[in-house]
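Person: I keep going back and forth on a fold encoding question. Show me how you would write down a chain together with its backbone fold. Please set it down just below, with no commentary around it:
Helper:
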Amino acid sequence: MSAAGYRLGLVFVTGSAVAWSTAGFFTRLIQLDSWTMLAWRGIFGAIAIALVIFALEGRKSWLAFRTMGLPGWMFAAVSALGMIFFITSLRHTTVAHGAVIYATVPFVAAGLSWLVLNEQPTRSAIIASLFALAGVALMMGFGVEGGLFGDVLAFGLTVCMAIMMVIARRYQNIPIMPAACLSALLSGLVCWPLGDPLVITSHELLILALFGVVNSAIGLALFTLGARHLPAIETALIGSLDAPLAPLWVWLAFNETPGASTIMGALIVFAAVCVHLIAGTLRRKTQLEPAVF
């Protein structure tokens, strides 16, 4: 892995975490059921990515989809399945339980990447992931009000995300944008009949379009681009920035002040990621320096 590719992966995965963290902001703006919001999110996200593909490829756009191959279809299907797990888990467990369970994704990703890719995580990545998990747990609390079935679904989302990271890492020749486009489209089509997507106002449609472009299109595209350049555990660790960033946007837009535990947990997550990135940078710099005899 080149240093330039590694840095590019960091930028892309961080960007995807920022994009995905806007979900709470958009759901505050729209008073619709989750199925309707996520149906339009997927549809608009797919349209936005398709337009980018057409602008880049022109008349050859359809060829990009035809060359996805089995890994590309697997990535899209697992991504859509993860979204279904996410939606249904919220109906059977608390957001706090779901967030804490999802914070275990670095360890699931590390295990899968070790089994499939023989990619061993660094000590700093493991330690940083432990601190990030502790930070998310502190933010969300340790309540026992969650349901077992919902917790199982949340863990299903965690496994799906880990599988996506390993697929993107293993098959680096997957056509990025077509895979992200198909993933968004599948999630939107699955959610469409479960909601009431045709009973919305023009104002809600505009916000839903922004939701799809920012949260789905940009988030999926950046994640898929970045995951191929980073070890799976590092992709998952940086993705955990979603948890502390989400309440930040809601606080800035709606003056919804986070509690002390949320602020403390967010600082732990940020510190864990930053310390790991600094340690990784110093380690790579040392490896690149010529030995002195």
Summary: Residues 4 and 166 are 20 Å apart (CA to CA). The longest helix spans residues 260-288. The radius of gyration is 19 Å. The chain has a mean pLDDT of 81.
